Amino acid sequence: MAEHVVADADALPEGGRLVVELEGFEIGVFNLDGDYCAYLNWCPHQGAPCCEGTITGKYTADFDPETLETTHDWIREGEFLYCPWHAWEFDLKTGDCTTNDAYSLPSFSAREENGNVVVSIP
Amino acid sequence: MASQQTTSPSGPIAKSTVIDVDVHLGGAIDYEDVAQYLGEPHRRRLLNHSGPSPLPWSGWDRNSGGKIDSEPHTIADAHELDERLCREFGVDYPVLNPMSWIPRLPETKFAIELAHGYNQVLLNDFLDEYDHFYGTVTIPTQDPEWAAEEIDRLGDEDQIVGIYIATGGPDKPLGDPKYDVMYQAAQDNDLAVVYHGHVDAFLTDFPRQNQALEEYVSVNALGHPWSQMLTMTSLIEQGTPEKFSDLDFVFLEAGLLWAPYMTYRLNKEHSMQPNASPLLEKSPEEYVRDQFYFGTQPLEEPLDASQMKLVFELLGPESILFASDFPHWDFDNPSTIVQTIRKNLDDEAFETVLNENARAVFGIDS
């Protein structure tokens, strides 16, 4: 296990992102409302630099079988990552692809310690 | 950084020679670049058009709701193409086409001028730049005789390896004898014929082209699967099986193999555009496997009968219902088809297809 200071915490504010190179891997580090997460900058779909994609919310829908009406909602703004190539959608909290359970972004432990953002490489 | 990262985990395709037969110049060719080869009044039209494009353009969202940037999906010139596709991705020989939907244009003279312009840009700005680039001659199907002349003009170019036809447009389907002169020219010049579908034509052309088919054999062959593909796609798009999770959906008279093909395609599309169908809670394939059923008739007839096994495997016996279409002229003789099914399935799967699925779907007791 190797631990790397990747930035001052001030350099990665809430909603922010960094892409850093650690031990030959490009890794995206994200600050989600104070919770840090880090993923390999490599889309499991076709190898794109997914951590550089758009971060936004997700469109959801709910169908009421009584009224046959569908209502829509835009949820969790800032918590979904969209790959820049094919717009594959990943939940930043888990790294999971939202449309295919078989795919997740390889993740790394990330935390704040003594004013620094630290990423652990196993 | 991004460019290195795109290849470093898996590396460029270095194991053997790679020829990529569908490489679009698309945005790499500015209308200004083409216009220099056009005569008037067409040049001025191209340079001074109104709206976003001088060519028919559907305007559909191609950026997944603004979540992806269009810039990485275009190239500026031959050098960027070589750098990104050949050096980074490891493609040795790209076969280029300008991705211009010329067959859709109603004006024949303008179509001819444009095709000529694109062909000149392909030659001068791309093929002349790199010996490992190859290209295809853009064809205006509106005038097959002119197309044949253009093919003859360019056929001797070492790096021209085919003719490129965007399918669609208001003209007759591409097997019509009026195109024979064009195909003859391609054959005489030892060039391949390349067809490329496109989404804009889909919106307007296919009803016309369906009606322009020459014989009923084609209508019968295409009508069923096309309409069923449309139906399946719409159901998935709108989340209908999610809304009505107790419903079973049965598709008849299109055979079987279209279903796995379309299912896999919808998987891919949904992965790229999940917000277009926000009701979906699982992959299109899971809805198909859980709620969609497919009648056997007209059962596919590969020359190698053993390939039927694969057809049954792809779809899975749990999704297949025996169907004959009796008494229509193109019905499947039940005794023959049952034997075919018997040959390809084990005892349990055979019963599943012959009766158990239908029992469950239609609530038939026996």
Arithmetic mean pLDDT of chain A:
95
Helix content of chain B: 40-55%
> What form of chain A results from the Cα inertia axes?
elongated
- Count every helix of chain A, treating DSSP H or I runs of 4 or more residues as helices: 0
Percent in strands of chain A: over 45%
Shape of chain B: elongated
Return the CATH class of the largest domain in chain B.
Alpha Beta
Which strands sit side by side, in order, in the main sheet of chain B?
1-2-3-4-5
Q: What is the correct CATH architecture of the largest domain in chain B?
A: Alpha-Beta Barrel
Rounded mean pLDDT of chain B is 89
Ends apart, CA distance between termini of chain A: 4 Å
Extended strand count of chain B = 8
Determine Rg of chain B (CA atoms, Å): 24 Å
| Structural domains of chain A: how many | 2
Q: Could you say what the CATH architecture of the largest domain in chain A is?
A: Single Sheet
**Rg on CA atoms of chain A, Å:** 16 Å
CATH superfamily of the largest domain in chain B: Metal-dependent hydrolases
The CATH class label of the largest domain in chain A is Mainly Beta
The biggest beta sheet of chain A reads: 6 strands, antiparallel
Structural class of chain A, please?
mainly beta
Unreliable stretches of chain A (pLDDT < 50, length at least 5) are none
Descriptive account of the structure:
The complex is a heterodimer of chains A (122) and B (366). By secondary structure, chain A is mostly beta strands. Chain A has 2 domains: 1-42 and 105-122, N-terminal domain of TfIIb (Single Sheet), CATH 2.20.25; 52-89, no CATH class. Helices cover 0% and strands 56% of the residues of chain A. Chain A is built from no helices and 9 strands. Chain A is elongated and about 55 Å long. Chain B contains 16 helices and 8 strands. In chain B, 45% of the residues lie in helices and 10% in strands. Chain B is an alpha/beta fold and 366 residues long. Chains A and B meet through β5 and β6 of A and α1 and α12 of B.
